[in-house]
Amino acid sequence: MKLTFPHMGNLYIPLKTFFEGIGNEVITPPYCSKRTLEIGTKLAPEYACLPLKINLGNFIEAFERGADTIVMAGGIGPCRFGYYCEIQREILKKNGYDFEMIVLEPPKKQMLKLINNIKRLLKKDISTLINSARFAWKKAIILDNLERIISKKRAMERKKGETEKVYKELIKKLENISEENMLEKFSVEIEEKLNMIEEDKKVPLVIGIVGEIYTILEPFANLNIEKQLGELGVETKRNIYITDWVRENLFPKFLKPKNLNEIIEKAFPYIRHFVGGHGQESVAQIVNFSNKNFDGVIHLLPFTCMPEIVAKSAIPKVSKDYKIPVMTLVLDEHSGEIGFRTRLEAFVDLIGQKKEEYILNERLFGSGYRVS
Ligand code: SF4
């Protein structure tokens, strides 16, 4: 059995660590590229969401490298993710691919099925399950922390491109770490390397990124938005990181983040009910980011994403009520980098001017003044 799974940002690193730790051979698909998307777009229905198309491309590229088993997360709720696996299985089988698919359903609804599928994947004794999960989890935490710091560094670096170079080196190293006890030393190395990046004194603008999870986590799907904003001198903070995805999708309820409900409640005046995916959370996080004095928010969604379309309809009101600029960007296989960059630059200019106006007014009229 040679396992593969979809690429979603750096999630492949903890996933590979976990599945190898419990005794599987893992074939990671190559990084998402134009080819990946072209393969998926040819096979998927035109109206399918962008992540499904990229995932199909991932699987076929992994099959070309010898993979024969797909591991996918399942889903429940009113968005298409719930039948994603079945659609992908059908499309791939219809196109002549011979493989097995193991779906890890969320524990909330299908605990027994989840346990049985984990048993199928467990090729060593039960202790390796706990040890590998812990090892993978620690890698995920390191990745999340690294990505948070990198975003600030990119916006403040003196020598353009230096942060990106260090980031790529560190990611490669983390991927190759095979012993849990090496992680502590590696964390020290991260700190040392990042401290060596020279910073400008200026305070960067801060933009929150909210929206559909795959589009947020996979740089290919979001045209590398965080790197692009970093180049424009902007620090980004997402509403979701890898550990959040794991907690939400694979952990039982009692291990979910305690403050999640508190945050979700902020969306109630605009969206009262769960609408699938992260639609409700996107709205809630805009309120949350505004309360934290972020300079703006970018809302990302793939074309035809149902939960985020619901969120999009509520966003103009949230933006007006909380006086925070929000730009929605819809992505699909036709999205072009040049037009995308132009929109980012225009948005950054706008919030930069707004911030200057705010600082000026604060000097003139005292703190607490807010530009409408
Ligand atoms: S959240 Fe959006 S993009 Fe993701 S599966 Fe659901 S509809 Fe598709």
Description:
Keywords: Coiled coil. The chain is of the alpha/beta class and about 375 residues long. It has 3 domains: about 1-125, Rossmann fold, CATH 3.40.50; about 145-200, no CATH class; about 205-370, Rossmann fold, CATH 3.40.50. The chain contains 15 helices and 8 strands. The protein has a 4-stranded parallel β-sheet with strand order 2-1-3-4, sandwiched between helices. It has a 4-stranded parallel β-sheet with strand order 6-5-7-8, with helices on both faces. Helix 13 (about 280-290) runs parallel beside helix 14. The chain is globular, with a radius of gyration of 21 Å. About 40% of the residues are buried. The mean pLDDT is about 90. The structure holds iron/sulfur cluster. Iron/sulfur cluster (SF4) binds near residues 277, 305 and 307.
Tell me the layout of helices and strands:
Blueprint: E1 2-4, H1 12-21, E2 25-26, H2 34-43, H3 50-64, E3 69-73, H4 81-94, E4 100-104, H5 107-121, H6 126-156, H7 162-176, H8 183-195, E5 205-211, H9 213-217, H10 225-231, E6 234-238, H11 242-250, H12 260-265, H13 279-291, E7 296-302, H14 306-322, E8 326-331, H15 337-365
Parallel strand pairs: 1-2, 1-3, 3-4, 5-6, 5-7, 7-8
Helix pairs in contact: 1-6, 2-3, 6-7, 6-8, 6-10, 7-8, 13-14
Bound molecules: iron/sulfur cluster.
- SSE arrangement, N to C: EHEHHEHEHHHHEHHEHHHEHEH
Number of helices in the DSSP assignment: 15
Average pLDDT, all residues: 92
Query: How much of the sequence is in beta strands?
Result: 5-15%
Helical content band: 55-70%
Per the principal axes of the C-alpha atoms, what is the gross shape? Answer: globular
The first-level CATH class of the largest domain is given as Alpha Beta
Coiled coil: 153-180
Keywords: Coiled coil
